[in-house]
Amino acid sequence: TQASNQIAAGEVVERPVSVVKELIENALDAGSTQIEITIEGSGIERIRVQDNGQGIPAEELPLAVLRHATSKIRSIDDLMQLQTLGFRGEALPSIASVSRLEIISRPPAEISGRVLRVEGGDQLEFDHIGSPPGTTITVDDLFYNTPARRKFLKSKNTEFGQISDVIGRLSLARPDVSFILKHPKVLVLQTPGRGLLLESIGAVLGQATARRLLPISCVSGDWQLKGYISPPDLVRSTKQGETLIVNQRIIRSNSISRAILEGYHTLIPAKVYPIVVLNLQIPPHEYDVNVHPTKMEIRFHKEKELMEFIAEGVRRTLLEAHP
Ligand code: ADP
Ligand code: MG
């Protein structure tokens, strides 16, 4: 029902940045190599995500905004093996219930696309339309029908800051995908999408920073740690410059943050934070994610050993650069 969609929306879409993240993760799940995001009014007026992925088949399009209509789980096995980013089938219905939503989509093999328009959860239009291959989702007037939620939004600068931050981190997790962010006409970010992490870091954090970072690369059994970390004379007073990625997902993890600092602080004084992009590849059965729909919490089964591995990787990188 409409009410239950709006309640679910409270869980999944707290603010504009959560909508942006869900839409981008859907685009990534669809195998896109190019994702263009346009933001107007800090996401409250308009969020548009255009991708060149596999598209949504015409017969599935009206279903995509109904609850639990995920195309990503077909069996319990799928649930256990989950590699895609979304799997609850709640994002689109939730977004649809609290905005004016338009989806234009064309699977590459089709000759024309379809457009679906939904307002506050009610379908207004479903029709043929000319469209490039891929999917374009436009979310207008977010929370127009839930004024209480709208009141909880922070200033426009804060909301947009969160959006550009999450897009930056998503693009660092997927250097093989080209991300473009426009607000609304100004080009805020563009990554080349050639699969080179350092190129994406240059686009997100600036070329001057990228040039100074030290590469991290170490292996232990089936664990692999790769990424970049700043030298001790390029540090910040907050954790703002930290991007943690596990098997291509951006995550938050206090234990990993601590492990990085532990490796780092053996060499320099405490209370400063490196700029760091850390990519951890570990077997999917060695951790649990997801706990909460929007927060990417993660629990590692071999936490202690893994954190020692990370701290040691950081320590060794710094020692090699500053023996
Ligand atoms: P979930 O991602 O959890 O499956 P969503 O509500 O986010 O659920 O999306 C519902 C369904 O709509 C997805 O399972 C997928 O089939 C389809 N979909 C959404 N966005 C896209 C996209 N950009 N490209 C292709 N299919 C999409
Ligand atoms: Mg999704």
UniProtKB/TrEMBL annotation:
Residues forming the DNA mismatch repair protein S5 domain are 201-319
Give the transmembrane region(s).
none
Q: Which residues form a coiled coil?
A: none
State the similarity comment: Belongs to the DNA mismatch repair MutL/HexB family.
Role this protein plays: This protein is involved in the repair of mismatches in DNA. It is required for dam-dependent methyl-directed DNA mismatch repair. May act as a 'molecular matchmaker', a protein that promotes the formation of a stable complex between two or more DNA-binding proteins in an ATP-dependent manner without itself being part of a final effector complex.
Question: What protein am I looking at?
Answer: DNA mismatch repair protein MutL
| Organism encoding this protein | Desulfitobacterium dichloroeliminans (strain LMG P-21439 / DCA1)
Q: Gene encoding this polypeptide? A: mutL
Within the intact protein, the region shown is: 10 to 332 of 662
